[in-house]
Amino acid sequence: MTSRSSQAGNPSLELLMRGVWRDNPVFVMVLGMCPVLAVSNSVINALAMGLATLFVLVASGALISMVRHLIPKQVRIATFIVIIATFVTVVDYTIQAISLDLYNALGAFIQLIVVNCIILGQAESFASQNKLLPSIINGLGMGSGFTIALVCIGAVRELLGNGSLLGFDLLGPQFQPWVIMILPPGGFFVLGGWLLLFAWLRERKGEVRIISGGCGGH
Amino acid sequence: MGTESLTSIFLNAVLANNFVLAMFLGLCPFLGVSGKLSTAFPMGLATALVMLISSLCAYALNLILVQFDMEYLRLISYIAVIASAVQLVEMVMKKFSPALFRSLGIYLPLITTNCAILGLALFQTFREYNFAQSVTFSLGGGLGFTLAIVLMAALREKLDLVNVPTVTQGAALSLILGGLLSLAFMGFAGLGGGVG
Predict the structure, then answer these.
(1) What is the pLDDT of residues B132-163, one digit of tens each?
(2) N or C: more exposed end of chain A, with fewer CB within 10 A?
(3) What's the rounded mean pLDDT across residues B4-30?
(4) pLDDT for B192
């Protein structure tokens, strides 16, 4: 992962960072919410889901960028979906072969990567108009941003709801788990909380206003 | 799993395991189209209709795929069927109710990437539902989706009139609201008997 910045110059690095930070698909653009909330109840699940999505983003972006001149404009969406579905099937069978426990924990959400709007959005707005290398870098950036966001949410939910992180008990036996955090409502609350934090930070950085303290102190 | 009663499947899909609020399927329209009650309700109904059609098609398709040992094509064929079903609904709606067609605008094609629909098709396959169970499941799922999006739209219309701090405006507030709704729907747990 560290070598990817060396393969290209400054514009590529900027493209990469755009997906990771400035246009983060989850925290800034609020896309692909279903898997974000559904599988982020532990760090392991979140990480696996993030990496699976990263792979599909990069692979489908690369393929679509390579065949972009062959696809007729009228059927491009259908073509994109079939290409994406192919890679998702690959991921689905791979995870099933590597770890059946993980496969069962993620359930139908691996196959639902097909309808993740981040991937189709990237195919339509970036990969179908750009060369191979930028498409791969854009996919890497978006995928990493998605993975980081998922892990951030998963860490909070696992720590509060289970008192552990990556399966290791952190808070000791006297900790009363806040069970609601690993249940469905917790997903909404934790993502809402992260969005609030970022909105607050942006507001503080953007314009120094007197009310910023009052708003953040909710 | 294949022997669940129809009532239990229906109640689970509508309330206890609501597609949006408990299973996190179809959150994009839930957050995106829930700004106004007047568009949220038709959107819910159109989604429910596509759900029913694609559930029926997926059921028939799965029979064929199992017959020929081609389960690995399941995902690709399901998504193709859903895309065609959305196209069909769009054409029918344009012909018979142009007003509704115009009011939904670009949201109609977006139903294709609504994961509630693909999720419904996948779940009914995994749980090995028979024909009647599949139909009940898709009706319940559609009703549950409509219920969730209409409740959300009604809440957000009220919220427009309230003075909230600027940082909380937008997606953050919608998510917290969704969390509260989800919390309320947890009260229905166990209603359908057994976990779905």
Answers:
(1) 899 999 999 999 999 999 999 999 888 888 88
(2) N
(3) 84
(4) 61
Smallest Cα distance from B151 to chain A, Å: 16
Residues of A with CB under 8 A from a CB of B: 30-31, 33-35, 37-38, 77-78, 81-82, 85-86, 88-89, 92-93, 108, 111-112, 114-117, 120, 180, 183-189, 191-192, 195-196, 199-200, 203, 214-216, 218
pLDDT score of B193: 57
Is the predicted ipTM greater than 0.90, yes or no?
A: no
Work out the number of other CB atoms within 10 angstroms of the CB of residue B122: 22
**Interior angle at CA A74, CA A70 and CA A79, nearest 5:** 60
Scanning the structure block, which residue is given the tokens 């070598």?
Answer: A3
Q: What is the least distance, in Å, from the CA of B2 to any CA of chain A?
A: 18
Task: Look up residue A176 and give its two tokens.
Answer: 């009363």
pTM of the model: 0.83
* Pair of tokens at residue B150: 């209409």
Tell me the β-bridge partners of A169: A164
Q: Which of A107, A141, A96, A82 is nearest to B125 (CA)?
A: A107
Q: Does an H or E element contain A90, and which?
A: helix A76-98
| Residue A211 in tokens | 């009310």
> Looking at residues A84-90, what average pLDDT do you find?
92
Provide the residue ranges of all domains of chain A, joining segments of one domain with +: 2-201
A109 burial type by CB count under 10 A (0-12 exposed, 13-18 middle, 19+ buried):
buried
Residue B2 pLDDT: 56
Q: Is the pLDDT of residue A131 over 60?
A: yes
Query: Is A115–B115 a contact, with Cβ atoms under 8 angstroms apart?
Result: yes
User: Is residue B195 within a helix (H) or strand (E), and if so which, with residue range?
Assistant: none
Between helix B115-126 and helix B37-67 the angle, nearest 10°, is 40
Closest C-alpha among A37, A81, A45 to residue A63: A81
Q: Residue A191 and residue B175: Cβ atoms within 8 Å?
A: yes
What tens digit of pLDDT does each residue of B41-84 get? 888 888 898 899 889 999 999 999 988 888 888 888 888 888 88
**CA A61 to CA A120: how far, in whole Å?**
9
Give the residues across from A168 on adjacent strands.
A165
| Length of chain A (residues) | 218
Does the beta-carbon distance from B167 to A120 stay under 8 Å?
no
Chain B, nearest residue to A115 by Cα:
B113
